[in-house]
Model the fold of this input.
Amino acid sequence: MKSGSPDASSDAPLLSVRSLSVAFGGTPVVDGVSFDVSRGEVVALVGESGSGKTVTGLSLLDLVPDPGRRVGGEILFEGRNVGSLSGPELRHLRGGGIGFVFQEPGAVLDPVRTIGSELISVLRRHCGLSRADAREEALAWLSRVALPDPEARMGDLPHRMSGGMRQRAMVALALAGGPRLLVADEPTTALDVTIQAQILELLLRLRDELGLAVLLVTHDLGIVAEVADRALVMYAGEIVEEAPVERLLRAPEHPYTKALLLSDPGEAEGAARAKLPAIGGTVPEPGAWPVGCRFAPRCPAAFDRCAVEHPAAVSRPGGRVACFLAGEERP
Amino acid sequence: MTAPAAAAGVRAEPLLSVQSLSKSFPSPRTHLWGGTRREVRAVSGVSFDLAAGQTLALVGESGSGKSTTARLVLRLLAPDRGTVRFDGRDWLALSRSELGSARRDVGVVFQDPGSSLNPRMNVGAIVGEPLAIHRVGSSAARRERVLALLDAVGLPPQAAGKRPEEFSGGQRQRIAIARALATEPKLVVLDEPVSALDVSIRAQVLNLLLELQETTPSRPAYLFIGHDLGVVKHLADRIAVMYLGRIVEEGPTGEVLGSPRHPYTALLLASRPGLGKRGDPGAARRRRVAGEPASPASPPPGCPFHPRCPSADAACRERFPDETLEPPASGRRFVCHHPEALSGGNFSAPSS
Done:
């Protein structure tokens, strides 16, 4: 594996997203999002539908679908500005610098190409291998992601494999080009729970083996708790809280984070037929964001100021929180 | 399998009693020009009882047969074998017209409220349709009832004049619930009703379902189809865990989740990512043994879980285990040759 490009100094973050804003038509969907990801780190981008988490992930590789446009901010990967890359440079970054795994491998895998053929072409394109070497390396990748009987899998079309096997193949494809960052967008949401556990374990193992950084886009705080080092909580297009996962779970500060944790049915206390603590209302649609704090209309702790003024983030050790109730800066 | 009520002595007849239900489908062709077609045994000898006003959850992963079981109970599919008694009648023997009028006692909510609500009808017509079909009350009374139903599920009266597309996923599921309860049914089949919803909306809808079960005058029983033990924990009085078409364990929710006797139940519990599990050194090891479920088209001989089971031995590979009732009073039952391997309810990986 390649280990970072020469122009990146060792303590600069691998990925640095600065004030990223994305709009669809005139409607903002991501609004001033900033965060860093370091080498070997697993960072979770957590949010519900409409939070902007998926669009943030797609922006990293300039993959936002039309009519979405980056309208502000910049993305630095290994010190280079992704927005200023040429077409060929961008194509090399996709798969060679940053790999992508999506929720539905079926939507990405070509239904009439075998997994072996897909892998071989990725390896030839990104690693410049000969056909024979690429075939060897493709087999090695299928074993690395623990697909049973790799030799037989090489000739399989995607529909012949189970959902869990397809997702393993997708992970192999995303990583074969030697990326330093893997963006995994809801990689296990379509899978059964016992298979989900296996795929999460696979991602952690590959992180350890390859020194990979992972940006995990998810709605599931249970998954965040299991695999992430740090979490970014998104609501209505912005990051409302960032913290090391251990602290986020033990002492969340933003009322939205608290509410999300409490309303997870798997974690809430109580016997059968006990009511769950629920947040009222719904996530506001992009374009209909409240003027003050965007969570204020649903927030049990909201007061006058929240309705009129947008809270700026105050810093915390290893994180930040955007809430008037969070009080003093604690850098 | 014997239904639990039989062992518990004299008890009122359950609202819904399913006995030895089986259903097979021809398997999809694996090649364009055929080859031999095999049968997929989707549901195999499934039995359970559901008492009036209670909630039974059928839990399992894809291919477990839980949704097929629901469709058999709804008579959307005809079983190959088995009986279904509902409200004191042989449900499978009802004629078409008898079934038509009996359906007012059964409501249903599906997973995807986007595709299960008719986009051409307004919400008032959607919610009122079961009342119109069963000719309940005058049209003025029905209109009033629709507004009361919308209010009960937390939607304003103006919602009646709008189309489903104007609502969010959570609101559409509220509309589907209002429609399911319109005729005050005795049974509501809930097929993954919150799986497509966001976390914060999921809790709202689960609370609504709990509340409506108590406030609806018919006190409906719920047959809840789900895959998430966390969700089921809050809703169900009893849980039946399904694997490859069979119920492998059934009993009161607290007992099944607190001390699972079937290794598959324990695996499901261990696999669920949880906020409390961080740093649990055994978690990864537990999962590594898990494998994938066999295809329902070629289930393994013996116990269908044996290829993934840490305590499987020769008996498990050869013979489907008999059902164990334990303790008989609670109607707790499971099918496993080695349930004792699960003392303390912990799923332990094989040492090899």
User: Anything to note?
Assistant: Confidence is low (pLDDT under 50) at residues 1-10, 343-352 of chain B. The domain at 4-28+38-272+286-343 of chain B is CATH 3.40.50.300 (Rossmann fold).
